[in-house]
Amino acid sequence: MKERKKAPLALPGDKLAVSEEFLPGMHTYDASGLIRALRAGSVVRDMKNMEISVQPAAEPELFRVDDWVTGQVEGSQANSANVHIFFLNGKPTYKDFSGMLSLRSLSGGGRGARRTTPVKPGDIVRCRVFSLVNGIIHLTIDEPDMGVVAALCGSCGRHLLKGNATKLKCDECGNVEERKLARDFGTTPIEP
Ligand SMILES: [Zn+2]
Q1: How far, in Å, is the centroid of ligand 1 from the Cα of 190?
Q2: Is 63 left (phi over 0), alpha (psi -120 to 50) or beta?
Q3: Which partner from 52, 78, 110, 113 sits 20 to 30 angstroms from 41, CA to CA?
Q4: CB neighbours of residue 111 within 10 Å
Q5: How far apart are CA 25 and CA 54, in angstroms?
Q6: DSSP label at 152?
Q7: pLDDT the model gives residue 3
Q8: What is the CA(159)–ligand 1 centre distance, in A?
Q9: Please, what are the domains in the chain?
Q10: 150 CA distance to ligand 1 centroid (A)?
Q11: What residues sit around ligand 1, an ion, with C-beta below 5 angstroms?
């Protein structure tokens, strides 16, 4: 049996230990000798392996596969984006949760695949929970009701308006942007 001791919640960036004491485990990083939290969650000290890690704050009993969530894109990589979750099944969440939006199926593929931009940081997105493996809330927008529900112009910051199924336009500056839109994009107020 593993010797495990639970400690209070950590927020991203919190100092957890010094690297002389512990090895950085899951969801932590070593920053010049200090082990810090990469995500919000509870701190787990594995005294046998002298490893400190963070168990993400997602509570399995709160989120279920097939739930839908609405939140804001915080950062995006080629195949995934972090989403700060504000609503679960249309109701506000009062704690800090983040999910990982998979973009693999949306980022092109096929002949003459052009790189598309399904989401951008700052967008409000509605997503489906498709997996809770490893305590991570895995999200997808690969269905008509899921996707971006509100977005701001990358040039001037105004609200973008719907152009067609995948294009958004800015009335203010004429900028045209591309997203994977939810069917009801542009509805006000936003339907979480
Ligand atoms: Zn604009």
Answers
A1: 20
A2: beta
A3: 78
A4: 4
A5: 8
A6: B
A7: 47
A8: 8
A9: 4-56 (2.40.50.100), 68-178 (2.40.50.140)
A10: 14
A11: 153, 155-156, 158, 170, 172-173, 175
Q: How far is the CA of 177 from the centre of ligand 1 (A)?
A: 10
Both structure tokens of 52: 């400190």
Q: Are strands 34-37 and 28-31 parallel, antiparallel or unpaired?
A: antiparallel
What the block records as the tokens of 78 is 């080629």
Cα of 175 vs centre of ligand 1, distance in Å, is 5
Contact 99, 81 (CB under 8 A): no
Residue 51 Cα, ligand 1 centroid: separation in angstroms?
48
- Asked if the bond preceding 189 is cis, omega within 30° of 0, the reply is yes
Cβ(76)–Cβ(45) below 8 Å: no
Which residues, given as ranges, of the chain have pLDDT below 50? 1-7, 60, 109-112
What pLDDT is stored for residue 70 in this prediction? 95
CB within 8 Å of 109: residues ≥ 6 apart: none
Measured in Å, residue 169 CA sits from the centre of ligand 1 at 8
Its pTM stands at 0.67
Strands (E), 40-169: 41-46, 51-56, 68-76, 80-88, 91-102, 124-131, 137-140, 147-150, 161-162, 167-169
**Cβ(59)–Cβ(86) below 8 Å:** no
Contact (CB, 8 A) for 92 and 85: no
The predicted pLDDT at position 61 comes to: 59
SS3 call for 179: coil
The DSSP symbol for 160 reads: P
